[in-house]
Amino acid sequence: MSDEGTEVGTSPLDGLWAVQRADAQLADARARRAALDEGGTLRAEVEAARAAAAEAAARLREAQAALRDHELQLAGTEARYKKAEGDLYGGRVSNPKELASLQDDIASLSRARDRLEDTILELLEQVEALKRLDAARLAALRELEQRLSAHLTEFETARDRLDAEIALRSAQRAERASIVDPRLLKKYESIAAQEAGIGMVAIVGGHCGGCRNDVPAQFVSRIRLGRVVTCERCHRILYLNGAD
Length: 244
Fold this sequence. Notes:
This protein is mainly alpha-helical. Helix content is 73%, strand content 8%.
């Protein structure tokens, strides 16, 4: 242990202890503020869900466009088939070659119609499946957006509360520091900067509250006299809080 020869009285030490407590409370509030979840993970999930929903919607539009195109092709094929069938059986054509050509056209159109009908049936099934996929992905996106919105509301409430607490504790710290001897405050702040923000610790059960090193009785006596005593091991200023 080490101590300074200048007696400062108990009031400055009490005032400095008040500063240390204010610093601890301020550090805790800042740590809680930094630990707030701004929704980064949920935002990423929403973006992924939005991309998935957009992909499903695009696939559905493509399938619906293909279905409309094939339905138009089928309508055109049906019209040509009916015309060729009317020409074949209407008595307008009597030339054997023309009749044979019409029969070939009808057979070709019939095959094309069958293929189009099969494709349309496949596309109808595909469209229905894509509608279900589109609805499911859109619902998933909406659910995630609602979760994100609720989370952001909670985050903003907590952020504002902690920002107000930090401002209040900063003002309290400044007020408490203003009554501490500037040299003592500078010494404390220098130690705190090197010791994880803790420049002063209480003696607890005869031990340094920072590093648990033993505090000899003679040093306790010096502290009672108002001397500034620092721990030889962790170099923090020691405070007698009535435990010894």
